[in-house]
Amino acid sequence: MQKEVPQRGQTVAINRSVVRGVGAYLPKRIVTNAELAKRIDTSDEWIVERTGIKQRHIAGDDELTSDLGIAAAKQALVRAGIDPVEIDLVICATATPDRTFPATAVRIQAGLGISKGAAFDVQAVCSGFVFAMATADNFLKTGQFKRALVIGAETFSRILDWEDRTTCVLFGDGAGAVVLEAQPQLGTREDRGILASQIRSDGRFEELLYVDGGPGSTRTTGHLRMNGREVFRHAVQKISGVIEETLVMTGYAPEEIDLFVPHQANQRILDGIARKLGIPPSRIMMTLDKHGNTSAASIPLALNQAFEERRVKEGSLVLMEAMGGGFTWGAVLLRW
Questions:
Q1: Which of 57, 223, 263, 291 is labelled catalytic?
Q2: Mean pLDDT throughout 269-275?
Q3: Does the active-site annotation cover 92?
Q4: Which of 169, 235, 250, 313 has its CA 20 to 30 A from that of 36?
């Protein structure tokens, strides 16, 4: 757990992980609910009513998770005005790596022409990007690295059972990336950069959301399996709790958040969290209808869209949260 951020008036010089750039990539192929209804027993009305999803992007046969990640990273680096060789830490959050090993992050690292520092994957499923941001922040704060590329990239379409209408309609493919840079700040809650983070796991709930395969068990990739009702029941409680813990660390209240960027899992989950915390719909970044659930990629994809729509500017207080299989869950509070 991070230490409490000093309150207003205190001046303790510390490193903060400041966002320098953001980028995203979505595969060209779009699959609508109507198209899915031709393949399985479902309908556009059924999917929209239960999830809020209208379409999703699906990676081409020639597109790897690393390809998506590289494309998103390149855009983030251009927007940051930073050459790839200036990056000394690459973290990729993914549950759908190119290969069992090496890490997808090292393939992204090589694809960008980076040969220094470290690169590794974080596997926390839908919470992966939050876990990766918290991990990068801890490395940058200590001064071990200067600039980090944090990526969420997924080709979830490849682990779906396309005959299971309760799961295959939910997910899509894509990638998002953020460039973080360690910058000295005063040590107050008005600082730019990551102000607080909390991450949690509880393996007792594994059987509620998992993939029924793996090289160490079935020697196959397997397919995603989910008990949707139970996941929903836990999600609102756990996510609301970790958000409240994160806000307590800085003394901010939900109504002071400029933009809430949640993991795009299900409209009902997002509505439940917003109601519980008192966050108005106008301050919630929604991409679920167009992207579906892109797992670790969903938050950076939404963050990128918020940037492009000018919903964030320097000084904006941004709250990110997610929950994924494991269970894993967490939140990050940052000032843009």
A1: 263
A2: 88
A3: no
A4: 235
